[in-house]
């Protein structure tokens, strides 16, 4: 635990800079959006600012396997320490961003004038707001962790032959399943179980199982990765 | 004496090049070892293997008799790399904080004392350090870890002679009070000759020699004199280098000389001198069979 | 006590010699404790094992003895033992070398004796 805490701390040191860059990009985008809006050029539907900032969660599993792994191991950590540490880091940031999104969502729906501009919020899209405040948090938390575990796996496996194999399989499976109607439906159903399941308990169970499996695969690759 | 680290027939290939071939070493508890070799001899590869950073193609690595499994990091080892890949944006003190949890015997008082001795500013960012200061951060972690086995890969790289001397002094002082196994790769044999007890010399991926430092000092001589006399004196000696200047020959040998033999040499008007270790190392590692 | 070591002979022999010197010049008396191996290591920046080797040599020769848990002490009769040993090696260590050199520069043994007696340099 001591080690994992120190890893979360070490990560924050690294992520600070990326977050700063990310926020700058978001702010710039925001400014441009406003300018276009005011000049009437752009009338697309805005996405909740909090949602946009939460996209940073997807950047975290890109940075850690690529940048953090070797550096942490040079300090004396084992691969196991690394794995535990990054999972705690993901948990930590998933909590932070889930809370942030909730707070922003309340703010947005209560104080922002929706008539000025239509906002889309992932909470509304996926109906994550149907089980109260706790539900909002849990839906987000487990969904974020699931997506993170998937990205983490994709970034972790790139040095291994089987990882390259996984890329090839995915690059075939994804377009094919999108192209064929019945398969597309299957994917839709699968995602509905994992990301917008009407039953919060079911969603937590299913997404946790998949998350654990994905993290296990990451671990499998980490054990075989040379520093 | 307990064996703390043993490798058996360790083999590592990079593509078709054999980086390491059948490395067998045995490190005992509470001794200081030197791993010598020229650049590219395989020292770093070897240290990367025993630290579990990379994986061998064949052979075993055992810590305290327990096999190091693939993907494991040895708990009893602190490995200080030649080029530390630390987080550039982190402060020196942050790095020590990140490293500390991995070492059971970590000593914060000692770590802080080392920062002062090495004149390292704890609040300076790692990115802003000079090459020598980078090395010192690694050294600080290696020493403060007080790990049962500490491996340093070229620890004094980028340090000026004064700092190098300081490092060796602190190392030997701390070792005297907190004995542990130290395994240090270097190509500066003279500098470590007083503190290292046993050395392994590595050449093109193999261990070429392993011996006590004292034995090596006792067995390396320059014999000089008339060409013919040198020749006859050295008939059954292990010659590792030879130069001739006109009728004068200077030969380097790696062999024992008894008192009688030394007297005989004196009678033959040959001069016997002790050879500086750095000379021994360069002749031995490069020449080998002694033929010009 | 010397401040550092030279390359002429192994360091552990030099350590033994250093302690012997201190015994014959009465820096250490009988039953005095000699410097610990740790102190040797720290003072001279050498591997403690080297100091142990030097000290053990003197223990074997009966010049030092060990008090368990306390350290190394100067044994009874140490001075005599050291003097005898040094005298025995005096010929091979010093005299013979001198005679060899003398031979090279065409001085006879008698010349050398003469030189020693008169304490003068030859022309």
Automatic annotation (TrEMBL), chain A:
Extent of the signal sequence: none
Alphabetical UniProt keywords: Membrane, Transmembrane, Transmembrane helix
Name of the featured protein: ABC-2 family transporter protein
Spans traversing the lipid bilayer: 12-32, 44-69, 90-107, 137-155, 162-180, 200-222
Native species: Chengkuizengella marina
TrEMBL record, chain B:
MF terms (GO), sorted A to Z: ATP binding; ATP hydrolysis activity
Highest taxon of source: Bacteria
Family matches, as InterPro entries: ABC_transporter-like_ATP-bd, ABC_Transporter_VariousFunc, P-loop_NTPase
One Pfam family, short name: ABC_tran
Keyword DNA-binding: no
Start and end residues of each ABC transporter domain: 5-229
Annotated keywords: ATP-binding, Nucleotide-binding, Transport
Protein name as catalogued: ABC transporter ATP-binding protein
Species annotation: Chengkuizengella marina
Taxonomic lineage from the root: Bacteria, Bacillati, Bacillota, Bacilli, Bacillales
């Amino acid at each position: 635990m001591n080690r994992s805490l120190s890893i979360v701390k070490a990560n924050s040191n690294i992520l600070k800079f990326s977050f700063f860059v990310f926020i700058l990009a978001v702010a710039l985008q925001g400014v441009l959006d406003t300018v276009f809006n005011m000049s009437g050029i752009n009338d697309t539907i805005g996405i909740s600012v909090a949602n946009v900032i939460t996209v940073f969660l997807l950047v975290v599993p890109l940075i850690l396997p690529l940048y953090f792994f070797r550096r942490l191991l040079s300090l004396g950590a084992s691969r196991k320490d690394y794995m535990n540490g990054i999972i705690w880091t993901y948990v930590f940031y998933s909590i932070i961003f889930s809370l942030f999104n909730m707070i922003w969502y309340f703010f947005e729906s209560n104080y922002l004038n929706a008539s000025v501009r239509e906002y889309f919020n992932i909470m509304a899209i996926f109906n994550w707001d149907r089980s109260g405040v706790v539900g909002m948090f849990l839906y987000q938390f487990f969904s974020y962790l699931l997506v993170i575990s998937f990205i983490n796996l994709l970034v972790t496996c790139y040095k291994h032959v089987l990882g390259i194999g996984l890329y090839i399989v995915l690059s075939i499976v994804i377009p094919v399943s999108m192209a064929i109607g019945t398969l597309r439906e299957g994917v839709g159903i699968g995602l509905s179980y994992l990301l917008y399941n009407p039953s919060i308990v079911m969603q937590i169970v299913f997404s946790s199982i998949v998350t654990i499996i994905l993290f296990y695969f990451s671990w499998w690759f980490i054990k075989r990765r040379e520093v | 004496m307990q064996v703390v680290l043993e490798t058996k027939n360790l083999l590592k290939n990079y593509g078709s090049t054999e980086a390491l071939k059948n490395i067998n070493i045995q490190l005992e508890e509470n001794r200081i070892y030197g791993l010598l070799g020229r650049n590219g001899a395989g020292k770093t590869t070897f240290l990367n293997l025993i630290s579990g950073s990379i994986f061998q193609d064949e052979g075993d690595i055992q810590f305290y008799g327990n096999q190091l499994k693939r993907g494991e990091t040895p708990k009893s080892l602190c490995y200080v790399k030649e080029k530390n890949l630390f987080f550039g944006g982190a402060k020196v003190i942050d790095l020590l904080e990140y490293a500390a949890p991995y070492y059971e015997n970590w000593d914060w008082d000692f770590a802080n004392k080392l920062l002062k001795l090495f004149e390292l500013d704890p609040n300076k960012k790692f990115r802003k350090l000079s090459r020598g200061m980078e090395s010192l951060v690694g050294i600080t972690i290696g020493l403060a870890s007080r790990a049962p086995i500490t491996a340093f890969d070229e620890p004094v790289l980028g340090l000026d002679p004064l700092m190098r001397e300081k490092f060796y002094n602190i190392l030997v002082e701390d070792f005297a009070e907190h004995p542990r196994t130290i395994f240090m790769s270097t190509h500066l044999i003279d500098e470590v000759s007083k503190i290292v007890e046993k050395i392994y010399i590595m050449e093109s991926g193999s261990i070429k020699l392993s011996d006590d430092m004292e034995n090596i000092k006792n067995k390396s001589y320059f014999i000089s004199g008339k060409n013919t006399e040198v020749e006859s004196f050295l008939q059954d000696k292990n010659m590792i280098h030879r130069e001739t200047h006109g009728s004068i020959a200077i030969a380097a040998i790696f062999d024992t000389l008894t008192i009688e033999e030394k007297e005989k040499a004196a009678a033959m008007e040959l001069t016997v001198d002790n050879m500086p270790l750095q000379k021994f190392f360069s002749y031995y590692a490069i020449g080998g069979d002694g033929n010009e | 006590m010397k401040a550092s070591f030279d390359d002429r002979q192994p360091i552990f022999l030099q350590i033994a010699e250093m302690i012997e010197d201190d015994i014959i010049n009465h820096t250490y008396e009988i039953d005095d404790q000699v410097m610990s191996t740790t102190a040797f290591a720290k003072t001279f920046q050498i591997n403690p094992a080297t100091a142990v080797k030097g000290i053990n040599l003197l223990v074997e020769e009966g010049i030092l003895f060990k008090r368990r848990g306390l350290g190394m002490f100067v044994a009874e009769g140490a001075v005599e033992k050291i003097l005898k040993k040094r005298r025995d090696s005096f010929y091979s260590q010093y005299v013979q070398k001198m005679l060899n050199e003398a031979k090279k520069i065409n001085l006879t043994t008698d010349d050398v004796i003469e030189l020693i007696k008169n304490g003068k340099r030859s022309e």
